[in-house]
Design goal:
Layout: E1 2-10, E2 13-19, E3 24-28, H1 35-45, E4 61-68, H2 75-81, E5 91-98, E6 103-107, E7 110-112, H3 114-124, E8 125-128, H4 134-137, H5 143-182, H6 188-217, H7 223-235, H8 241-272, H9 276-296, H10 303-364, E9 373-384, E10 387-396, E11 404-405, H11 406-409, H12 412-425, E12 434-438, H13 446-460, E13 464-468, H14 472-475, E14 480-489, E15 494-502, H15 504-516, H16 522-535
Parallel strand pairs: 3-13, 3-14, 8-12, 12-13
Antiparallel strand pairs: 1-2, 1-4, 4-5, 5-6, 6-7, 9-10, 10-11, 14-15
């Protein structure tokens, strides 16, 4: 339940703190005192729409904080558990409204999105006014419907892939066979191209290499003459060493150089001496690889990966057929499970609807709706996340009139009373722990207002109820009574809204004001006293 509400710098509210309690709390005050501002501020803390106009004039920002005491098994605990926020000491929702229109949201001082705040607010509080229909249309998404939809989507997606593979199967087999025969390798094209270029260059220099080799080692080679000359000089070395030795060394060096040159020329000739058919084979291989690359529209280096992918697709085709059959079976089972549960739910709804219609109708007469008839309209259709039923609350406000949806047929005041009757009947059926009613007694008085008060009090025995009211009969039944007033400050230069809890004589005086108006008479005070005692 709501334990404390704090408001700072919102419209006419400068600073406001309200400690809340279980039971029925009422807010009263003269028209224009700021009751709607208080509820707008509360809605802001619950994730409602923000607006720069909510910030009090002259302030940079406004702030609303709502503290709640909740049970460990409350749905709000599960909602916030994923964010890692501790709820052991309760929940504190805080919303900051900046003057530039931006807002910030916090839960237990941890920043959260406005959507998270709104989800928490919906689980903690329901605010009902004359034209509110939220509590009548909120529904949970059915798990089996979600499972059915997931299974159907999986079948559809897999079927598209399988059918596409079927259409491409022949082409895939041809491609795999061709590429498997070709056996392309990554990097093969560049290696072959380099080898081909080198072989073509060898043909151009081979003749020069042979001429050079003939000059060094052929019939006209100087090696034999130089060797003979060096031997003759070497035999004369002892006769004149100074003259002969340098020449012998030079000739020896020349012979060694010629021998090295011959060795290099031999190696070069061996390298250049290739089989002409090898060049043809390289060119044919390059042509085949590049033709395949053009055919399959991929770089030659990607042909091996393409072949592997196509082979995988072919293997997946057979597996895909089996997977499709399995998914179709799962989808049929999900449909059967959903249909069985939806039909059982529909039967249960029809039984519950009959009981609900009877119970709500019994509450209508004291609320001055004795000629009205309430019933649950159920249409069975194809199905959806809420089952196979389309459900609306219908009413016939007077005998002989055309019945129709409650939201369209009932007037504002009637809608509020129908809603109150529903809430009283369904009070123990999972309502939010805090219910706020905004002037649902507008346009009624006397016995009807007293009946509304009695039902609000009954409702407050099970959940926390906060009610903004103009009816003294409702105010007299409150466990907590707050008066909203507008005060003039700074010598009339500005006004501010304040909230004061009243009890005893001050409470009697407020109820007397509600009965009599601006001039409170002794008779009004006595009437107020009677209302308070009658409600005890």
């Amino acid at each position: 339940m709501l334990s404390r509400l704090s408001i700072r710098d919102i419209v006419l509210i400068e600073r406001l703190d309200i400690d809340c309690a279980a039971g029925l709390s009422v807010l009263t005050g003269e028209t224009g005192a700021g009751k709607s501002i208080l509820l707008d501020a509360f809605a802001l803390a619950l994730g409602g729409r923000g607006d720069a106009s909510l910030v009090r004039q002259g302030a940079e920002q406004g702030q609303v904080t709502a503290a709640f005491d909740i049970e460990p098994d409350h749905p709000a605990v599960a909602l916030i558990a994923g964010a890692g926020i501790d709820t052991q000491d309760g929940l504190i929702l805080r919303r900051v409204q900046l003057a530039d229109g931006r807002t910030r949201a916090f839960v237990n001082d941890e920043p959260v999105s406005v959507q998270v705040l709104k989800s928490l607010g919906s689980a903690l509080v329901e605010i009902h006014g004359q034209h509110d229909d939220r509590a009548l249309v909120d529904v949970a998404v059915a798990r089996l419907w979600a499972e059915r939809r997931t299974a159907e989507e999986a079948v559809a997606s897999h079927r598209v892939r399988v059918e596409q593979a079927r259409r491409e199967a022949d082409w895939l087999r041809h491609a795999v066979e061709e590429l498997t025969r070709l056996k392309p390798e990554t990097g093969e094209e560049s290696a072959l191209a380099e080898k081909r270029t080198a072989m073509m260059q060898f043909d151009k220099i081979a003749e020069d290499l042979r001429d050079a080799h003939d000059a060094v080692a052929g019939d006209k080679s100087p090696i034999s003459a130089l060797s003979s000359a060096m031997r003759r000089l070497d035999r004369r070395r002892t006769q004149s060493p100074a003259l002969v030795e340098p020449a012998v060394k030079a000739l020896d060096a020349a012979l060694n150089a010629l021998d090295d040159a011959r060795a290099h020329l031999d190696a070069a000739l061996r390298a250049a001496n290739h089989d002409p058919r090898e060049l043809d084979r390289i060119e044919e291989r390059l042509f085949a690889l590049r033709a395949a690359g053009r055919k399959y529209n991929v770089p030659v280096d990607n042909l091996a990966a393409l072949n592997a992918r196509h082979a995988s697709d072919l293997a997946a085709l057979d597996a895909g057929e089996k997977d499709l059959a399995r998914l179709e079976k799962a989808a049929r089972e999900a449909e059967a499970n959903y249909r069985k549960a939806a039909e059982a739910l529909s039967a249960g709804r029809k039984k519950a609807a009959a009981k609900l219609d009877k119970s709500v109708t019994a509450e209508l007469k004291p609320l001055k709706l004795e000629r009205a008839r309430f019933f649950t309209h159920i249409e069975t259709g194809e199905g959806g996340p809420d089952g196979i039923d389309r459900i609306e609350f219908w009413v016939e406000t007077n005998p002989g009139t055309r019945p129709g949806p409650l939201m369209k047929v009932a007037s504002g005041g009637e809608l509020a009373r129908f809603l109150l009757a529903l809430k009283v009947v369904l009070a123990d059926r999972g309502s939010a722990p805090t219910l706020v009613f905004d002037e649902i007694d507008t346009g009624v008085g006397g016995a009807v207002a007293d009946a509304i008060g009695a039902r609000l009090a009954r409702l407050a025995a099970k959940v926390q109820v906060v009610c903004v009211t103009h009816a003294p009969q409702v105010a007299a039944r409150a466990d907590k009574h707050y008066v909203i007033s507008k005060d003039t400050l700074a010598r009339g230069k500005r006004v501010a809204t304040s909230v004061t809890e009243v009890a005893a004589d001050r409470r009697r005086e407020e109820i007397a004001r509600m009965l009599a108006g601006a001039e409170i008479t002794d008779e009004a005070r006595k009437a107020a006293e009677r209302l308070i005692k009658a409600a005890e």
